Amino acid sequence: xxxxxxxxxxxxxxxxxxxxxxxxxxxxxxxxxxxxxxxxxxxxxxxxxxxxxxxxxxxxxxxxxxxxxxxxxxxxxxxxxxxxxxxxxxxxxxxxxxxxxxxxxxxxxxxxxxxxxxxxxxxxxxxxxxxxxxxxxxxxxxxxxxxxxxxxxxxxxxxxxxxxxxxxxxxxxxxxxxxxxxxxxxx
Length: 187
Fold this sequence. Notes:
Number of strands: 11
């Protein structure tokens, strides 16, 4: 399947999940993350879920990171430039949904991309070689290319991988891991 077909398929699959299934599966994903070899790292970038898109609820992961005294970073997107600005999540960080229902920090302490050690990446679909399909705007591809070499990229999914994705390019940045409720995929 190509990226457009996969976007349609996985949006429909996510929309078919009940609120209860979403919560249980999101908790299962967070419980799997504990098994990853990432806990010596300090700076963790996480996305705040678009609840209207039935994304993985990252609240459980936020609690996990906070409990382990990690520096948590969240982003604000500029839809004109396709740039993301990253901010340290603190008790004083005010979050507001933008016009696309993406929860974002209003402002705060800015953190450069090069400081980030681990990035939790939203996705709609992924394949067995670690490539992902997102919403197609290119924010994460651009952001990940700005991160330091060796940054750990972890996709979060409710589903199993596709064998292949038509239209993956050589320079598309692959993930290191994808975590779903049942297992960790390593690439």
